């Protein structure tokens, strides 16, 4: 049984879902599948028919997962505005203690109107998460936000977060090695705190309102600044 579980966990998402339709054993494994990557490419051409169909497919997949054992959760909703009605439910199911990689690319058309609550990153989640990528959302960490002791990589793309909020978040991430910021318009001063002794790569692109970068990271060896013309 452990062998079949391992085989099922290694299958691509679409193949794992198909196997679950054919076998009760695989259906049980599916409910604990460690990787959920949900986007148009993975779900196939049928999901391209309309926004409602795409959201319903994702909702069906997430609801049939127990939420147990998810290591990687990638949700890429490029242009699927109606998915916002489901987001709270999806994230509550998928973002659980033990998760290691979380990618949320929420929308790139229309207004940014979803706030990633700090409560999503509970104690158990903060202890396990290693990679965090957010896109097209609000993220407002506060001083009461707990430490992320294993977080090594952060990517923020078109995220509404201020310089002070980002500094607060970084100060809680002592293991951080890579930080990438793109089109984060609210950051007017980027301060890299001295606690980031593992940070070696900083990439900033198209942050138009950012004139000042202050770094106290002693081992930063790669700094990339990009501005689109």
From TrEMBL:
Ranges of residues in domain At1g61320/AtMIF1 LRR: 61-225
InterPro entries, sorted: At1g61320/At1g61330-like, LRR_At1g61320_AtMIF1, LRR_dom_sf
Pfam families: LRR_At1g61320_AtMIF1
Highest taxon in the source lineage: Eukaryota
Chain segments annotated as transmembrane: none
Protein's recorded name: At1g61320/AtMIF1 LRR domain-containing protein
Organism: Miscanthus lutarioriparius
């Amino acid at each position: 049984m452990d062998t079949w579980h391992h085989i099922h966990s290694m299958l691509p998402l679409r193949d794992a879902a198909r196997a679950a339709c054919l076998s009760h054993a695989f259906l049980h494994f599916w409910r604990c599948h460690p990787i959920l990557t949900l986007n148009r490419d993975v779900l196939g051409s049928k999901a391209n028919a309309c926004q409602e169909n795409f959201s319903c497919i994702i909702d069906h997949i997430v609801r049939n997962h127990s939420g147990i054992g998810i290591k990687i959760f990638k949700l890429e909703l490029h242009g699927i505005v109606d998915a916002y009605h489901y987001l709270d439910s999806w994230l509550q199911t998928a973002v659980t203690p033990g998760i290691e990689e979380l990618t949320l690319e929420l929308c790139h058309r229309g207004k940014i109107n979803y706030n990633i609550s700090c409560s999503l990153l509970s104690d158990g989640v903060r202890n396990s998460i290693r990679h965090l990528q957010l896109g097209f959302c609000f993220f407002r960490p506060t001083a009461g936000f707990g430490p992320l002791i294993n977080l090594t990589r952060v990517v923020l793309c078109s995220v509404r977060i201020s310089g002070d909020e980002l500094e607060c978040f970084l100060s809680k991430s002592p293991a951080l090695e890579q930080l990438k910021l793109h089109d984060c318009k609210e950051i007017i001063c980027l301060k890299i705190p001295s606690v980031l002794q593992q940070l070696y790569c900083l990439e900033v692109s198209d942050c138009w309102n950012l004139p000042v970068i202050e770094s106290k990271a002693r081992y930063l060896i790669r700094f990339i600044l990009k501005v689109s013309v």
